[in-house]
Design brief:
Length: 353
């Protein structure tokens, strides 16, 4: 399901000078399909937007004034941090670099090999942090006995740290799958898959496992936990209504708190599934092709679906802050306060004389 490591930072079969010439033609609109021009505008905008909103989310959540528990806040901060790294590594250092800087130090073989590992690891963390948050909310709502022991800030930190370490370690083997395409002045350039990677049964199995771990299994787990949570809420609501007297009109505080938590959970989970769905559907039927835009005549419907899938997948790393703002009143208040200080001095409007 996840794009293969061989599809990232691979220079195909072109010499550096040929690739540079193609990119010059690319910048002069020499026959490339419209989807490429959309991407050339889309990814820079996405980079600016993604870095900004994730930094804003990290700053606001770190203040701890959003009315959320410390456990939830820790998960949301972890998700925002992972999303920020996705934007930096995959959008800025990878895609924008390929489009606008065809020959740079990032194409030195050891550097681009490390970048491949960072891209996959950061995306893994972003996806599995979402799963961890969904499971935490499932435990908090459905498992009353386990909630007191599991839903703590310390446990959230341990879970996020464990996921991060496992993701990074799991992606390290991809570093050794590349070899330089050409050596110029004793400097290895570009990353191409080595022969063992292309023919080894071990790597075929590893790629298959990798495609299952991200994002097919996470999506299935998110759907499962949310379905169990919804079933529990429906059953609990019926019991609570039957126990409450017919004449009682006061607000049920526990129900209101649970409702706010569920709105945040379902919005984040639904956003993740929807934005990843195009990529998942494409990956179930077709392999990744023309990742580095080396064929300017590729304009098939399947290729367009692939590129749209990439764009939506990376958009997922920039939307959580918008969701917080739409669903959390105190988060909006903190955001407004922060915006106020951007245009004022010490909270008071500056007047020019």
């Amino acid at each position: 399901m996840q794009q293969k490591a061989s599809d990232l930072m691979c220079c195909e079969n072109e010499q550096p000078c040929d690739q540079h010439r193609r990119y010059r033609c690319y910048s002069q609109k020499m026959g490339y399909p419209i989807i490429h021009w959309i991407e050339r505008l889309y990814y820079p905008v996405l980079a600016v937007f993604g870095v900004t909103v994730n930094l804003v989310a990290i700053i606001i959540l770190s203040r701890g004034k959003c009315g959320l528990s410390k456990c939830i806040t820790r998960y949301l901060m972890g998700m925002a941090t992972a999303d920020l790294f996705v934007v930096i590594t995959d959008v800025i250092l990878n895609r924008i670099n390929i489009m606008y800087f065809p020959v740079s130090f990032l194409f030195i073989t050891p550097v681009c090999s490390v970048l491949v590992v960072l891209c996959i690891a950061s995306l893994d963390c972003s996806v599995w942090f979402t799963v961890a948050f969904t499971f935490d909310r499932f435990v908090a709502i459905c498992c009353q006995k386990l909630r007191a022991k599991y839903c703590k800030q310390r446990n959230a930190t341990v879970v996020l740290g464990t996921v991060c370490v496992v993701s990074c370690v799991r992606c390290i083997p991809f570093y050794f799958t590349f070899q330089p395409y050409v050596i110029i002045d004793q400097v290895p350039w570009f990353c191409v898959p080595n022969a063992s990677y292309m023919t080894s049964p071990f790597w075929s199995a590893y790629e298959w496992i990798d495609s299952m771990l991200n994002p097919l299994i996470p999506i299935c787990l998110i759907v499962l936990f949310n379905a169990l949570t919804v079933r529990h809420i429906i059953a609990a609501s019926r019991i609570r209504r039957s126990l409450r007297s017919n004449g009682e009109n006061q607000n049920d505080r526990e129900t209101e708190n649970r409702k706010k938590s569920m709105v945040l959970l379902f919005t984040l989970s639904g956003n993740f599934i929807l934005l990843w769905m195009v990529y998942v559907v494409h990956s179930l039927n077709w392999t990744v092709e023309n990742y580095n835009y080396v064929d300017k005549y590729l304009n098939t419907p399947v290729y367009k679906v692939q590129q749209v899938g990439f764009m939506l997948q990376l958009l997922c790393s920039c939307t959580n802050t918008c969701i917080y703002g739409l669903t959390q009143t105190k988060f909006r208040a903190e955001l407004k306060s922060g915006m106020k200080y951007l245009f004022t001095l010490n909270g008071k409007f500056i007047t020019l004389k």
